[in-house]
Write a structure and sequence with these properties.
Layout: E1 8-10, H1 11-14, E2 16-21, H2 35-54, E3 58-63, E4 67-68, E5 77-87, E6 91-102, E7 107-120, E8 132-134, H3 138-160
C-alpha cells in the first residue's frame, strides 16, 4: 500500500546522525579506517536521510567525488551526518559529512564529505515523486544554501582539474 506523501517536508525531518566506534575489522594495516567502510557508512546514512524525507524506499543514484580530509584512527568514534538539501521530481540530494571524535582528548576532526543523489521508489520499485523541500527556519535555510554552494564549488573545481 502506498504511503501518502505530503507536499512539503522540512530539511530537519531528513536529518540523520549515526555513530560507530572504529574497530579492527574496519581498519587497514596502518590502524586507520578503510575508505570502503567509510563510504559504506556514508551511503547508509544518506539512504536513511532520503527515506525519512520521501517516506519511501530509496536507491542510490550517484555519489559525487568524496573528499577524505583526515584519517580516522582505531578506537575513534565515527560520526556520520546527513540531510536532504535539494530535490528533483523523483530524486533527493543529500549532503553527508563524517567526523572522528576522541572524547578523552576533547578532539573532533572532519574526516570526509560528499554529496549523494537518491531516487524514491513506489511499491512496484519504479521512480516516484518526492515532496518539495521546506526550510522553515533560518538554520535550515543556511544548511541548504551552504550545501548548494559547496556542491557548486566542488563541481566547478573538478571541472577545472
Amino acid at each position: 500500500m502506498a504511503v501518502p506523501v505530503s507536499d512539503r517536508v522540512s530539511l530537519a525531518d531528513s536529518h540523520t546522525e549515526m555513530s560507530e566506534i572504529l574497530m579492527p575489522n574496519h581498519t587497514n594495516n596502518l590502524g586507520r579506517a578503510l575508505g570502503g567502510s567509510v563510504l559504506h557508512w556514508m551511503d547508509i546514512c544518506g539512504a536513511i536521510s532520503g527515506r525519512r524525507f520521501a517516506k519511501r524506499q530509496v536507491v542510490t543514484a550517484s555519489m559525487d567525488h568524496v573528499d577524505f580530509l583526515g584519517e580516522i584512527e582505531l578506537g575513534d568514534i565515527v560520526v556520520v551526518e546527513g540531510y536532504v538539501f535539494d530535490t528533483g521530481r523523483t530524486s533527493m540530494d543529500v549532503k553527508v559529512d563524517v567526523r572522528a571524535e576522541r572524547p578523552s582528548e576533547g578532539e573532533r576532526r572532519d574526516t570526509a564529505s560528499s554529496f549523494f543523489t537518491f531516487v524514491a521508489l513506489d511499491d512496484e520499485e519504479s521512480p516516484t515523486a518526492v515532496p518539495d523541500l521546506a526550510c522553515p527556519t533560518d538554520e535550515q535555510a543556511e544548511l541548504r544554501d551552504l550545501a548548494l554552494e559547496r556542491r557548486r564549488e566542488r563541481r566547478e573545481r573538478l571541472a577545472r582539474e
